[in-house]
Design brief:
The structure is a single chain. The chain has 359 residues and is of the alpha/beta class. It is 38% helix and 22% strand. The protein contains 12 helices and 9 strands. Helix 3 links the parallel strand 4 and strand 5. The longest helix is centred in the middle third of the chain and has 15 residues. The N and C termini lie far apart (45 Å).
Length: 359
C-alpha cells in the first residue's frame, strides 16, 4: 500500500511544479520602454536549436513537438540593477521595460540550418571559439528557457557563445509524462546540435544541463560514445549536470557505456531537492541522481560530485541552486571560464564545500 504521506507530498509538490510556467508568446512584447544603454547590465545573443513547433508568427515556440529541428536567435538585455541568481521578469501583458526586467529585444528565425550555422560560426569566431549549450528541465516554457540561458551566461561571465537547446516541454506541472517522452524524442536532435556546434568552428563545447535535461544529455552522450566520437573530436569541454532527474541505475548504465570521461563530469546534487523527491516517488521510490545519498558511488563513475545541500535556493523546491544561488553560479562560471585541467575543478569543488561549512 502506498504511504498516504507520500501521496500528500506528491500532490503538494506537483502543485508547486519544477519551474514557473509562462505564456510562450509573452517573449515578444507589444510595446517597449526605451532606456539608455548605460541602464543595461548586459546584452546577450542566445542561439536556439529547438524541437518545439514554431508559433503562427514563427517568432516564438510553443509546447508542441516539431518533426524537425528549428533554429532562432534571441537578443536579451539584462537590467542594470539585476541581482546575481535572479531572473527579473515582467508580469504577463505588461510593457517591456529593460530598466527593470530581462527583455527580448529581437527574435530572428532561420528557415534552414545553413543560415543558422553561418550566423553561429561568425559569433563563435568572434568569441574565441568557445560555445556553451544549456539544456533545460521539466515544466519549462520557451520563454523561461531563453531567460534562464541568458541569466546563466550573464551571471557566470561566460566568454563564449551561449546556445539553448530547448526540447518540447509541456510547460505545466501535469505534463511530467509528456515531458519525459518529449525528452526521449529530442535525443537525436541534441546529438545533431552538438555535431553542428563542432562543425561551426567551436574549439571547445561546454554543456550545462538541468533536471530532466540531464537525462537527454546523458542519453545523447551515450549515443556519441556508441559512434566512437564521445568527445566530439576532442572539442567536448566541461559537462555540468545540475540536479539530475535520472534513476541511479540508469545513470550507472549510461556512464558505463560512455566510459570514464577525459574531464570528470561536474555533478551538483542536493539532499533537500523536493522536486527530485517527487520524481523518485513517481518512479516507485527509486532514488534520483540529484539527491542520491552516496556520492562515493557516483565518483567511481568518473564524475566530480559537489554536494550543495546546505546552500540556499531561490525556489521553494531547492531545485535550481546551480543558477539561482549567487555564489554557486559564480563558482560555476569560474570553472567554465577556465581552459586548464583538474586543478580548477578541485578548487571550485573545495570552495563550494567551504560554503556548505559556513566558511
Amino acid at each position: 500500500m502506498v504511504n498516504p504521506k507520500l501521496l500528500i507530498l506528491a500532490a503538494a509538490l506537483l502543485g508547486a511544479g519544477c519551474m514557473t510556467n509562462d505564456n510562450a508568446t509573452d517573449l515578444v512584447g507589444t510595446s517597449a520602454i526605451q532606456v539608455p544603454v548605460t541602464e543595461i547590465a548586459g546584452n546577450h545573443s542566445i542561439f536556439v536549436a529547438t524541437t518545439r513547433k514554431a508559433s503562427a508568427d514563427a517568432k516564438v515556440f510553443g509546447n508542441s513537438r516539431s518533426a524537425k529541428l528549428n533554429f532562432a536567435r534571441v537578443n536579451v538585455t539584462v537590467p542594470k540593477y539585476h541581482k546575481t541568481g535572479q531572473i527579473e521578469r515582467k508580469k504577463p501583458g505588461k510593457a517591456d521595460d529593460p530598466l527593470q526586467f530581462f527583455t527580448a529585444t529581437e527574435v530572428v528565425s532561420y528557415d534552414a540550418q545553413p543560415q543558422f550555422s553561418s550566423a553561429l560560426s561568425a559569433d563563435i569566431a568572434a568569441r574565441g571559439g568557445r560555445a556553451m549549450i544549456f539544456i533545460h528541465g521539466y515544466n519549462t516554457s520557451f520563454d523561461s528557457a531563453v531567460y534562464r540561458a541568458t541569466q546563466i551566461a550573464h551571471d557566470s561571465g561566460y566568454p563564449g557563445t551561449p546556445v539553448l537547446f530547448s526540447w518540447a516541454s509541456g510547460g505545466t506541472t501535469k505534463d511530467y509524462v509528456y515531458d519525459r517522452e518529449s525528452a526521449s524524442v529530442a535525443r537525436d536532435q541534441l546529438e545533431a546540435t552538438l555535431r553542428l556546434l563542432a562543425q561551426s568552428g567551436a574549439r571547445r563545447i561546454d554543456i550545462v544541463a538541468h533536471s530532466m535535461g540531464t537525462w537527454v544529455t546523458m542519453e545523447t552522450l551515450r549515443q556519441l560514445a556508441l559512434t566512437g566520437d564521445r568527445n566530439l573530436g576532442g572539442k567536448l569541454g566541461d559537462v555540468v549536470l545540475a540536479s539530475p532527474d535520472i534513476d541511479i541505475d540508469v545513470f550507472r548504465s549510461q556512464m558505463e557505456r560512455y566510459g570514464k570521461p577525459d574531464r570528470p563530469f561536474f555533478l551538483l546534487l542536493s539532499s533537500d531537492d523536493r522536486a527530485l523527491r517527487l520524481s523518485g516517488i513517481l518512479a516507485g521510490n527509486k532514488p534520483r541522481v540529484g539527491d542520491f545519498g552516496d556520492p562515493a558511488v557516483l565518483a567511481d563513475l568518473g564524475v566530480m560530485v559537489v554536494d550543495v545541500s546546505h546552500e540556499k535556493s531561490g525556489d521553494r523546491l531547492n531545485h535550481t541552486k546551480f543558477a539561482d544561488n549567487p555564489e554557486i553560479v559564480k563558482l560555476l562560471g569560474q570553472r567554465l571560464r577556465e581552459d586548464d585541467g583538474y586543478a580548477s575543478d578541485r578548487e571550485v569543488t573545495d570552495r563550494i564545500n567551504m560554503l556548505n561549512q559556513g566558511s
